[in-house]
Specification:
The chain has 374 residues and is α/β, with parallel strands linked by helices. The chain is 38% helix and 17% strand. This is Phosphofructokinase domain-containing protein.
């Protein structure tokens, strides 16, 4: 068995572990919304049906807890035919609710032997636990992950689906903030974008827009006061141009928020640290600062935009739809070949199967398991 990280799809197409009439597949979506979710669902269903003749495919309603608390949804090519044109996920989603024993009990009771899990880091960690429990029980079940995060911050893989759409839509918010700021004397437009731990959306949207004066991201610390600080730069730009646009990722500047505003390490249901509204905070600080020095250039007008939910809820664009198709079909080929405990995605341009423990721990030392093999 190949021990390298990358398993090129063509090397496994010739081996099909599951018989089509014996496959009972399920699909579950977890975590936050992301453009392209419905496309992935559609292409898993169509891939299983048209490429392998699989007819028994169900959707788990409402995330992980749907395995044991809700009814399933029967999925056929006809049912999913047009869902890629809609945002969100037709299966519903949720955070948390991961009771491993109940989930695997449901998988076993329903006779499911292929599980396709679509979600981000927390979801993939949950999938890894499910895989370990399935393995412990000796079940012949393939557990395949399709990585999802709009922030494009999943380790190892080149990019995540929904990112291109998010950047494209973020530019609309930036353009609106720029028009508002430019139309007002001393106007300052602040656009807060997604990016809990990384600023890919903020930075790419800034580079594509050309209307942004300052981009603040979690990877690059900044300060407000003194020489070289944000306030000094704001004064400079307002004197030069009479307006400016600031883009800030949601995770930027969290260390600058006062203790009274911080969430004191609280976490959401997915285990992510709860972040304070840095857009509101920074606009308030800028207002206070510019009001104190208003004699220099007059009063400023703040325009604050937070298009987060508008971006998350739209369908994928053409580029993301093509990419979602490749991810979904890659997962289907891997599962049908009998691989399990993996997430799929391009690594250095080659579509690969990455073991859960590698994608989670950022270690490249192990390879996916094969059903029926030690």
């Amino acid at each position: 068995m190949n021990s390298n990280l990358c398993f090129v799809c063509k090397t496994i197409y010739s081996q099909v572990y599951f018989k089509s009439d014996e496959v009972h597949a399920c699909i579950v979506t977890c975590g936050g919304l992301c453009p392209g979710l419905n496309t992935v669902i559609r292409e898993i269903v169509c891939g299983l049906h048209y490429m392998y003749g699989v007819s028994k495919i169900i959707g788990i309603d409402g995330g992980y807890m749907g395995f044991y608390s809700k009814n399933t949804v029967t999925l056929t090519p006809k049912v999913v035919n047009d869902i890629h044109k809609r945002g969100g996920t037709v299966l519903g989603t949720s955070r948390g609710g991961h009771d491993t024993s109940k989930i695997v009990d449901s998988i076993q009771d329903r006779g499911i032997n292929q599980v396709y899990v679509i979600g981000g880091d927390g979801t993939q960690k949950g999938a890894a636990v499910i895989y370990e429990e399935v393995r412990r029980r000796g079940l012949k079940v393939s557990v395949a992950g399709i990585p999802k995060t709009i922030d494009n911050d999943i380790p190892v893989i080149d990019r995540s689906f929904g990112f291109d759409t998010a950047v494209e839509e973020a530019q609309r918010a930036i353009n609106a903030a720029h028009v508002e700021a430019e139309s007002t004397e001393n106007g300052i437009g602040v656009v807060k974008l997604m990016g809990r731990y990384s600023g890919f959306i903020a930075m790419y949207a800034t580079l594509a827009s050309r209307d942004v004066d300052c981009c603040l991201i979690p990877e690059s610390p900044f300060f407000l006061e003194g020489k070289g600080g944000l306030f000094q730069f704001i004064r400079k730009r307002l004197k030069e141009n009479g307006h400016m646009v600031i883009v800030i990722a949601e995770g930027a500047g969290q260390d600058l928020l006062t203790e009274s505003m911080q969430s004191m390490g609280q976490q959401d249901a997915s285990g992510n640290k709860q972040l304070q509204d840095v857009g509101f905070w920074i606009s308030h600080r800028i207002k206070v600062h510019t009001f104190a020095i208003r004699a220099d250039f007059g009063l400023t007008v703040m325009i604050v935009a937070d298009p987060t939910y508008m971006i998350r809820a739209i369908p994928g664009n053409a580029s993301d739809n093509v990419y979602c198709t490749l991810l979904a079909q890659s997962a289907v080929h891997g599962a049908m070949a009998g691989y399990t405990g993996f997430t799929c995605g391009p690594v250095n341009g080659r579509h690969s199967y990455i073991p859960f423990n590698v994608s989670i721990a950022l270690s490249l030392s192990l390879s996916p398991s094969r059903i029926g093999m030690k």
